[in-house]
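F.,

This is the one I mentioned.
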């Protein structure tokens, strides 16, 4: 049996899929896998670190505003469709699993033409445009938030299931003691982890740098700066450690963190929630703000929305968290109760059941 995965654009579209693959391998080691992603996207680099074969195709983004690129990207989508069709015909997978992103759309449409069963996972609060374009072809749609089903078109609700967001199993093995030993000089210090997503986040990076003059020795900040790392590396100092990306040390680092400052991608929220972290979210407009707002209403996170993201507001939010142990524990506990930590295993089992029909 063979399963094709598709999706890309950000790590949030790739890592959850890899978590499902790992869970499936544990259940049935005989299954083969492949991944279809954008030929110039970051997903190829991520898959290059795994044993899952990667196939690159052209991809185009449909923008909901006037842009000349909308015209050229239509041709990229068409080309990507035929490339995906050839890949699927050549590899003959028994099922296609889509994690979303615009590269997934031509793959889903090609799979439908090839009469391959299609499963979709939506991480965010509401179905994104790519998944809305794919939903009609899907046999099952898994979602991270229960309200996603209520917001969806009635014609899709019967095939939607709330199972949560897949989480990388390796992160759950993080060791708090090892992480704190690696980054702190004194045990009583508080560790703030700043994660701007797989591509980094300039707005968050700039806020952190502006905050540094007011930071006390009681606080240690470890900061993933992303692809703009060279701009922020010169600010490195005692108690502030900028780094472009984290690899093997990430699990211990998250486990060690007292506060995590992050964008509000659903994949990251699920992982931090599973590890019971107190979150300060700085969402982008759109789906991320929807994700953050729902969690804030549940009193599970603190949020600094785009319109509020001044240095003064940021400092106030950070100070409130680092000086309130009880609040941090309450946020971490509440968020953990909203997370379904076994999503990847449950999704993997449903896929296996489908393959065995």
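My design for it:
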């Amino acid at each position: 049996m063979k399963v094709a995965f598709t999706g890309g654009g950000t790590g949030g579209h790739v890592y959850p899929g890899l978590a499902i693959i790992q869970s499936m391998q544990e259940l049935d080691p005989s299954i083969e896998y492949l991944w279809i992603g954008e030929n110039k996207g970051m997903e190829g680099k991520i898959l290059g670190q795994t044993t899952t074969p990667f196939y690159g195709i052209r991809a185009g983004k449909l923008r909901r505003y006037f842009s000349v690129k909308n015209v050229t990207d239509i041709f990229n989508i068409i080309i990507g469709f035929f490339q995906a069709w050839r890949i699927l015909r050549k590899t003959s997978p028994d099922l296609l699993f889509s994690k979303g992103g615009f590269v997934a759309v031509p793959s889903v449409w090609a799979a439908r033409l090839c009469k391959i069963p299609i499963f979709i996972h939506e991480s965010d609060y509401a179905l994104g445009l790519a998944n809305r374009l794919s939903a009609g072809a899907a046999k099952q749609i898994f979602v991270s938030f229960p309200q996603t089903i209520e917001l969806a078109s009635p014609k899709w609700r019967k095939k939607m299931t709330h199972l949560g967001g897949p989480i990388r199993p390796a992160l759950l093995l993080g060791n708090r003691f090892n992480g704190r030993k690696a980054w702190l000089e004194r045990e009583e210090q508080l560790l703030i982890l700043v994660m701007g997503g797989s591509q980094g986040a300039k707005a968050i990076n700039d806020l952190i740098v502006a905050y540094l003059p007011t930071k006390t020795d009681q606080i240690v900040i470890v900061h993933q700066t992303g692809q703009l790392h060279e701009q922020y590396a010169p600010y490195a100092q005692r108690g502030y450690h900028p780094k472009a990306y984290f690899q093997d040390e990430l699990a211990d680092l998250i486990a060690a963190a007292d506060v995590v400052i992050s964008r509000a991608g659903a994949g990251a929220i699920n992982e931090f929630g599973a590890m019971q972290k107190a979150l300060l979210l700085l969402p982008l407009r759109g789906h991320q703000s929807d994700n953050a707002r729902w969690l804030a209403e549940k009193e599970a996170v603190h949020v600094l929305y785009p319109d509020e993201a001044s240095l003064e507001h940021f400092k106030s939010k950070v100070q409130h968290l680092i000086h309130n142990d009880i609040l941090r524990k309450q946020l971490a506990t509440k968020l953990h109760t909203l997370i379904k930590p076994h999503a990847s295993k449950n999704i993997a089992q449903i896929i296996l059941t489908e393959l065995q029909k």
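The chain has a mean pLDDT of 92.

Talk soon.
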